[in-house]
Amino acid sequence: MSRSRTIDVPGSQGVAPEFLVTPETLDAISPSGDRGGVIIGSDPQGEAQAASILRSMPTRMVTVGGLYLARQLALRAMATGAWVIIATGRPAAWKMLERAAGETPDGKPVPLVQIRRLAPFDLPRSSEDTPLLVIHDGGAVPQELFPPRAPWQTTMYVLPYLHPQVSSGTAANTADLVLLQRLPLNQAQLAQRIWSLRNHQVQPLTQLQDDQLIALGNMTWTMIRLVTNQKEKEILGPIRRGD
């Protein structure tokens, strides 16, 4: 990839500032963005596509598709120095992030990553120095357990597929950034209703390859091809659409 372009997220102040992480973490996860921006992949012209998902305002984003995409975004957020807290009913599916973050000298997991039960709990305070990514892995119709309320807090809802009830939920309708992997036709039509897509945008959603997605933002419709470096392959395995 040559140049990098940042996806327009509503209210964005540009790419987030630089954050510092330990050398051990950098050995496991290569930084993958410009000064805190998270690179998602490349566009059809081969230019890197990044999004400022860690920024100085409460942010909500949604991924629709397999776990691979959500876990890759979490790894790349970790590489910028963000704290990542995962609320999930399937903790084993996220354990590789704990292993990637490493251990403290006494053998405990580095607190950069926390895997918690899918229930309300108090979040740590987020700031420019310690941005926070909260991952809500709660099925196709998630409850609003952790709405982003503070600057430098991003809540990412991981949806395995689009459910009709999502159209009336806050998570999808008010998302600042939506990342859609391949959808069957009925779900692509549901996506059209939720995000007011045009007719010609529906069919491409059904034809995406396993390594492709559509990014929806403020006046943004961008096709992106996922790109994985060698260290990410060792942690996540090959790029795939399913879990």
Please name the defining characteristics of this protein.
24% strand, 22% helix, Rossmann fold, 7 helices, alpha/beta, 11-stranded mixed sheet
Give, in spatial order, the strands making up the sheet with the most strands: 1-3-2-11-10-9-4-8-7-5-6
User: What number is the mean pLDDT?
Assistant: 83
Question: Which sequence of SSEs, written as H and E, runs from N to C?
Answer: EHEEEHEHEEEHEHHEEH
Give the CATH architecture. 3-Layer(aba) Sandwich
> Major sheet, described briefly?
11 strands, mixed
DSSP strand tally: 11
**Coarse morphology:** globular
Portion of residues in helices? 10-25%
What Rg, in angstroms, do the CA atoms define?
17 Å
| Sheet/helix structural class | alpha/beta
Low-pLDDT stretches:
11-36
Give the quaternary arrangement of the chains. single chain
What's the level 1 CATH class? Alpha Beta
Report the sheet-strand fraction.
15-25%
User: At the fourth CATH level, what is the homologous superfamily?
Assistant: P-loop containing nucleotide triphosphate hydrolases
| Total count of domains | 1
End-to-end Cα distance, whole Å, is 27 Å
CATH topology type: Rossmann fold
